[in-house]
Amino acid sequence: MGINRKPKKMLVTLLALMMTLSAAGCSSGNNTNNGAKASNEPAATTAADATAAPVNADEPGWKSDTSPITFDWYLNFAWFPNKWGVDPTSQYITKKTGVNLNFIVPAGNENEKLNTLIASGSLPDFITLGFWEDAVKKMVEGELVLPLNKLAEEYDPYFFKVSDADKLGWYTETDGNVYAYPNSSSSPADYKKYGENYVSNQTFVVRKDIYEAIGSPDMRTPEGFVNALKLAKEKFPDINGQPMIPLALHEFTATGNDSLEAYIQNYLAIPREKDGKLYNRETDPEYIRWMKTLRQANQDGLLAKDIFIDKRPQMEEKIAQGRYFAMLYQRTDFAAQLGTLHQQDPNKVYIAVDGPANANLDAPRLNGPGISGWTVTLISKDVKDKERAIKFLSYLNSEEGNKDLYLGEKGVSYDTIDGKDQFKPEVFELMNKDRSAFDKQYGSSFTFWMLQNTNITDQWAPKSVEPFKQLEDWTKGKTHSNSEFDQIDPLGNSPEGIIGAKIKELRGKTLPKLLMSASDEEFDKIWTEYIKKQEDLGLSKFQAFQQTKYEENKKKLGM
User: For this UniProt entry, which residues form the secretion signal (predicted)?
Assistant: First the structure.
């Protein structure tokens, strides 16, 4: 999603909005973990409706009305499996706030379902989707969603106290309003405060027993990488009667492959910009060198045909079987399988090791949490109760709401143990053993993640256990904020967006061809044609749009 707004106008609007609130509540220091600056915390305001109870920026608004109400909440994720009210945590929150939720999840293609809803002009009460989705802008421009700041001013100024001013600023539109609020968001200011604990999802992992059996080789250079794959295949041709697969990548899609784009480029520490100008990372000599390395690996029989056709379910099955030797893959995507492998044999788990590196062997620059977050949540213009909706959103966004959704109900999923609020031992054990069963039996630890704020919940987070800890620890210190590069792509239906879509489709078709080419000469021919086709499609126009957005982002972030 592209956000086209001027930083000065945004800042003036936000300050004006906050100055409408009294300073009476600014002394509260209970929300230090939400990243908002104390000077930006507004306090009491006068209710817009003189007949309504006075609203108070210092008090959670939801407490004023806990009568039963059910909101419909659309989640644009077909894989989301959970229902509200099945588990003790959601039951506890409903009992406490009076709010029940009816989740609406698409059965098939998410974009088709959401576009149908948008076309109808009528949306469920709450909508949660990825921040990058064009649908966010469509809903805002179509006036299908309400400004959160206006709702908060009228009904619940507490929203401003429990929301991060930087994130409100980031999501302020050209009309001065905020329609979406992110989860899993970390601003540059958060990095200064919590950054040393941030971890990345981007990992290069190997199966521990196989890696050690071939001598724990250095896989940072092209030669060492290919040789390690060869040794693994020679020594372990089969895994439980099935062919061993030397290397796994994210699935190939119609628009590309995550492992062959941002992942490997980050491992090679290829810069995203040079001298203030966005850098086309895939033209970097280091990237081309490693793509040719993978081409050679395929020629040597080290890239199984499976990796070009398997989707995530097939990959999960093969990970659970331990059939891959190495993977350039998102660690959270195989956490469940990793836990299963660890139960079977701790020596057969996947561990993070130093992977592909540039010629200088620089440390990778991995993606950490950004200010855009992961998903954003909006409130529909058709919401059945505006007041209860913004108050419930404030509750979910607050430290109290985050604690409830993370730890659950005291005595059920957590207790105060050794002076610290933490998960009960049997609860934590089930969480690591069987996440699906945990979600249904307890529903805590962000089974419902729509407004999760890990900067808040880190104070209650249990220390990671193996086999997950090793992967997380490996990424610490290599994780960086890339917020200024967020949301620089154009809307899909804009001229630049159409160019971008065609370039992605071209990339999706080209990447497999490059890896399956018969020689470096054939690789070079395909590559030259690929670059030429990008230029013919209008790459320069697409890049100019991104550059403008990037420069706007830097101003918004004060960089």
Answer: 1-24
